[in-house]
Design a protein that fits this description.
about 70 residues; alpha+beta; Factor Xa Inhibitor; three-stranded antiparallel sheet; 3 strands; about 10% strand; elongated
Length: about 70
């Protein structure tokens, strides 16, 4: 049976932690930053954790990362 292919777009956007959770960079910190509060921008810096339902979708896209 041939190897399964990794979705490269998903591999670039998500990282898997040691415990199997999926981390991602939060959106909204690229441009139009003047109208966003300092607190909001500070909170966007930290990585987010995907929910369990979304993790299952990412797991199918990246078969060799889990």
């Amino acid at each position: 049976m041939p190897k399964m292919k990794t979705r490269k777009a998903a591999a670039k956007r998500y990282k898997v932690t040691g415990s199997g959770k999926v981390r991602y960079k939060k959106q909204g910190l690229r441009h139009i930053l003047t109208k966003k509060s300092t607190k909001r921008k500070r909170n966007l810096r930290h990585a987010g954790i995907l929910s369990e339902a979304e993790t299952e979708k990412v797991r199918k896209m990246m078969p060799y990362k889990f």
